[in-house]
């Protein structure tokens, strides 16, 4: 295991004092707004990843790494402008972000226009490395298909009937589409799809439509929820007693704060991107130990993602021998590297990072603030047939 280091990375909001030989990285993300918790985890993880991969020096071949932060406020138009500013005015070597899939989709053409890399982390929508992809886009985050295939493995079965509830934007719609595709041939039926605005807090009408669609269906019945941010749809729908209609709730993993509400669902199964106790490798051991020491808590969902991106950046620059974009693309296509989740690999065809997911079963411990997603099975790269969607 790498030694524990307390080195603080260089992170700045402007370019004053940055030498021309420095390796400049823009982190463009929704630092403020409804997904602020996700953003903080992503940035903390990025800086830890850069530190880990450089043995605390924050240098690659003697060149200092400088990270410039830019806040999209979760607005797509801001993401476009800030990425152009980073490439043009700040002359960064590459960029990373954002949090929101909608913002990411707006940023993709800017990377192509400037012919500079954008490493997408943690935005999830399939279309980012699918229909809207271009060759300057790499993604360390999982995509909707990886979520969908993993949850399909966890939930599917003969005579299982599923309704879905998702947010009405790219993340939710791509997620449901991929989930439906992953269930094909499993004997599982999709009975109803419900989409609601991203800021919904009252789920009464949506739940009633779902219950009406499910009440007369025979067999096992589940409501699968795809959600990001607040609103607590799981808890509010559970309060409406879906068991009256024989409906059980199911969902994938989430950040620890959100998983406090999962305590209402002991025994619930699903699949998650990351929970700090599930992976077993040296990188994760370092992350858990270091994060606990510095922040007084275990690393969370998007901390692991940010760290994976930071390590990928360092490994790619080392492999390419510099920051030339074409050299980086050549180095990164097919590149494997070690992360808190184990080995990841950039697929050459669409630059999507192939990675493990984790089938879980919820356990409730009164001494732990959140529900614990006990590992049922690690779903490895070989277990997850993820479609290529950029054709």
Automatic annotation (TrEMBL):
UniProt keyword Signal present: yes
Tree of life domain: Bacteria
InterPro entries reported in the protein's UniProt record: BCAA_transport, Leu-bd, Peripla_BP_I
Pfam families per the UniProt record, alphabetical? Peripla_BP_6 (PF13458)
The family database entries (Gene3D superfamilies) matched by this protein are listed as: 3.40.50.2300
Which keywords label this protein? Amino-acid transport, Signal, Transport
- Which residues, if any, are the signal sequence? 1-21
* Key word Ribonucleoprotein present: no
- Please list the residue ranges annotated as the Leucine-binding protein domain: 23-363
Q: Which family does it belong to?
A: Belongs to the leucine-binding protein family.
- Entries under PANTHER family matching the protein: LEUCINE-SPECIFIC-BINDING PROTEIN, PERIPLASMIC BINDING PROTEIN OF ABC TRANSPORTER FOR NATURAL AMINO ACIDS
- Please identify the protein, giving its name as recorded: Amino acid/amide ABC transporter substrate-binding protein, HAAT family
């Amino acid at each position: 295991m790498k030694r524990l280091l307390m080195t603080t990375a260089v992170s700045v909001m402007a370019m004053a004092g940055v030498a021309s030989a420095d390796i400049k990285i823009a982190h463009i993300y929704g630092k403020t707004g409804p997904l602020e918790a996700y953003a903080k985890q992503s940035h903390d993880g990025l800086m830890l990843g850069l530190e880990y991969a450089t043995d605390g020096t924050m240098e690659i071949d003697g060149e200092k790494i400088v990270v410039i932060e830019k806040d999209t406020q979760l607005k797509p138009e801001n993401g476009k402008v800030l990425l152009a500013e980073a490439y043009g005015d700040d002359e960064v070597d590459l960029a990373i972000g954002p949090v929101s899939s909608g913002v990411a989709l707006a940023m993709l053409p800017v990377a192509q226009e400037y012919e500079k890399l954008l490493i997408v982390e943690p935005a999830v929508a399939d279309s980012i490395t699918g229909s809207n992809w271009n060759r300057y886009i790499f993604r360390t985050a999982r995509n909707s298909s990886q979520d969908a295939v993993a949850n399909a493995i966890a939930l599917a079965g003969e005579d299982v009937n599923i309704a879905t509830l998702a947010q009405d934007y790219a993340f939710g719609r791509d997620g449901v589409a991929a989930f439906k595709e992953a269930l094909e041939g499993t004997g599982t039926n999709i009975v109803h799809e419900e989409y609601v605005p991203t800021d919904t807090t009252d789920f009464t009408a949506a739940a009633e439509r779902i219950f009406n669609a499910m009440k007369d269906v025979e067999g096992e019945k589940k409501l699968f929820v795809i959600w990001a941010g607040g609103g607590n749809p799981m808890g509010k729908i559970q309060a409406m007693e879906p068991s009256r209609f024989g409906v059980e709730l199911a969902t994938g993993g989430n950040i620890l704060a959100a998983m406090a509400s999962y305590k209402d669902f002991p025994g619930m199964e699903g699949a998650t991107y990351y929970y700090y106790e599930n992976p077993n490798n040296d990188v994760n051991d370092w992350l858990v130990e270091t994060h606990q020491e510095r922040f007084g808590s275990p690393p969370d969902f998007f901390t692991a993602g940010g760290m994976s991106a930071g390590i990928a950046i360092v490994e790619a620059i080392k492999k390419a021998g510099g920051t030339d974009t074409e050299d980086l693309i050549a180095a990164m296509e097919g590149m494997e590297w070690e992360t808190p989740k184990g080995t990841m690999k950039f697929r050459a065809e669409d630059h999507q990072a192939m990675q493990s997911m984790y089938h879980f079963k919820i356990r409730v411990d009164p001494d732990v603030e959140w529900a614990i997603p006990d590992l049922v099975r690690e779903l490895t790269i070989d277990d997850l047939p993820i479609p290529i969607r950029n054709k």
